[in-house]
Amino acid sequence: MDFTRLLDEYNLDALFVSNPHNVRYLSGFVEGKDARIVITRNGPTLITDGRYLVEAAQQRFPYRILLNRAETNKLLAEFFWGRVGIEAEHLSVAALEGFQQDFPNLEFVSTRGIFEKLRRKKSPEEIALIRRAAELADQGFRHILPFIKPGVREIEVALELEYFLRKNGSEGLAFSTTVASGERSAMPHGGASNRTIQAGELVTLDFGCVVGGYCSDMTRTVAVGQVSGELRSIYQAVLEAQTLALEAVAPGKTGRELDTLARDHLTRLGYGAHFTHGLGHGVGLFIHEAPSLSQASEDILEASNVVTIEPGVYIPNLGGCRIEDLVLVTEQGHEVLSHSPKHLIEL
């Protein structure tokens, strides 16, 4: 990366990078939450503390070790001058006030999305890691199906799934696992509770792995025994909407266009008011990143973007359904990275 050109583009003399995902993206430093990068015309420098001395030596940038976190601004004085860019969507107000107090003669400039824009387009190496994370998620789905049965608590299913994923190579969870059964399946991000799964219910599982820092994201909804005709109709409607949007994924499409395809189909079937979130989002080092697929989005898909397609229908006091695939945008169209079956599985 040409850091001098980057500073010139934004008319900056230095840039302070505090978002941990951007720290990892730039440096490869795994513990990004405990590090910062300051970029000047002499290049980037990683700043962390003594707990990460070994890790700091393994990443790609020169580094400095803080012996005392209270000395951060004293160290930054070696790098800050003129116009200093900050990541406005991450740096706290308190930290900015501290900078302004300690560096009264400098101009601090809010920046937004500098590295997030770069992170949208994945390299072949990044795609390979996301692909591995998606494959592990598929393995996890196959593993967990026999555990979903009447009398088992949602939290027990979630713990078994998480244990399998960690045991088989996931660095952690991309986000909190959702196992939502019965009426709780009407909660898009319902987490996993102590509720006992019962026959005749839908169960929604939303989970993700992390491989090499990169996330996967997949949702499947299954039936425990026979479910009502109404729940079957909901499932079929969501599957059709997901298929319509998925088949349209290609470079040049906007997030709004794809969202509209799924939303209009659900509206025609009478479920539009119950699709209460956007169609999808980008996935990478962070589980929710650009591009966005929603009615509010004008983001345009490009080859090498990785996005989710995840319509859902949620009806309070009845239940809900979501079906989500991880999708790579290619030059010719798209490649679906999630391979778990999407027909209604009856357990």
CATH architecture field of the largest domain: Alpha-Beta Complex
Distance between the termini: 51 Å
Order of helix and strand elements from N to C terminus: HEHEEHEHEHEHHHEEEEEHHEEEEEEE
Give the CATH superfamily of the largest domain: Creatinase/methionine aminopeptidase superfamily
In total, the number of strands is 18
Sheet of most strands: 6 strands, mixed
Helix content: 25-40%
Class from helix and strand fractions: alpha+beta
- Coarse shape: elongated
Strand order of the largest sheet: 4-3-2-1-5-6
Helix run count = 10
Gyration radius over CA: 23 Å
Oligomer: single chain
Low-confidence stretches: none
CATH topology-level fold name of the largest domain: Creatine Amidinohydrolase
Q: Taking all residues together, what is the mean pLDDT? A: 96
Q: Estimate the strand proportion.
A: 15-25%
The CATH class of the largest domain is identified as Alpha Beta
Number of domains: 2
Family: Belongs to the peptidase M24B family.
Pfam families: Creatinase_N, Peptidase_M24
GO molecular function, one term: metal ion binding
InterPro entries: Creatin/AminoP/Spt16_N, Creatinase/aminopeptidase-like, Creatinase_N, Pept_M24, Peptidase_M24B, Peptidase_M24B_aminopep-P_CS
Structural account:
Keywords: Aminopeptidase, Hydrolase, Metal-binding, Protease. Residues 129-331 form the Peptidase M24 domain. One of its GO terms (molecular function) is metal ion binding. With 347 residues, the chain is an alpha+beta fold. The chain folds into two domains: 3-119, Creatine Amidinohydrolase, Chain A, domain 1 (3-Layer(aba) Sandwich), CATH 3.40.350.10; 121-336, Creatinase/methionine aminopeptidase superfamily (Creatine Amidinohydrolase), CATH 3.90.230.10. Helix content is 32%, strand content 23%. The strands form six sheets. A six-stranded mixed sheet has the order 4-3-2-1-5-6, with helices on both faces. α7 crosses α8 and α9 runs antiparallel to α10 (255-268). 43% of the residues are buried. The mean pLDDT is 96.
